[in-house]
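Quick start: what a row looks like.
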Amino acid sequence: MSQQPELTQHQLGGAVVHPWHIDQFGHMNVRWFAHFFDDASFLFFNRLGLDQKTLIKEFGVHTVTAQSTTEFRTEVLAGTCVDVLGSVSRIGEKSLGLEYRMCSTDRTIEYAICKTIEVLVDAQSHSSLPIPSILRERLELAQKEDSKS
């Protein structure tokens, strides 16, 4: 798929592209890529056992997407089944980089890549904070684990 260094990829979900996802040009509209990738970001933290409610309740923090870029590689048509894979590309002091790949369920076609920068913020003041140690540990583990997909 990609010529970039391999990141540990975690299966975050799958979807069926429906006719209402299709635009006037006959392929999935950009807004739906954003929808699937946004869902993947919540699923990613949930799979770490650190969903947004837990982060707020236990640590008083939550994540905010500070930047998101999507590279569209191949058209997606109605009836296509896709998988969304996610990986940790970088862990900083107050932010982290996540990468999501939308691909065919057999992983032979890569439809799009979304890269985000997530910032940890105080749930009350919304100011950025250092990544809590338990989250950092789980992110580092997720970054190193063998792919289960």
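That is the whole record. Residues 1-5 have pLDDT under 50 and may be disordered. The chain is about 25% helix and 35% strand.
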